[in-house]
Amino acid sequence: MITVPALMLLxxxxxxxxxTNRVGILQQSLVGIRGFDRSGKLDKNAVVPMLAPxxxxxxxxxxxxxxxxxxxxxxxxxxx
Length: 80
Fold this sequence. Notes:
With 80 residues, this protein is mainly α. It has helices spanning 3-9, 14-38, 44-66, 70-78. Helix 1 (3-9) runs antiparallel to helix 2 (14-38). The longest helix has 25 residues, at 14-38.
């Protein structure tokens, strides 16, 4: 909510700002998973059944966005 508009205000195209933000989110997620695993609080048996729907949903969800131009992304964020 803050990072993408801030990057766009600094002149970065909307699609690049979105991708840059997702790299940080991925890193935070991996560190969180590692922390839960090291502390013994990660139930790996509960995670495995969720992997297929999560990965397939992410893969299918990128296709509608793939055809959207940067101007469309900017319009979604700024209304112009």
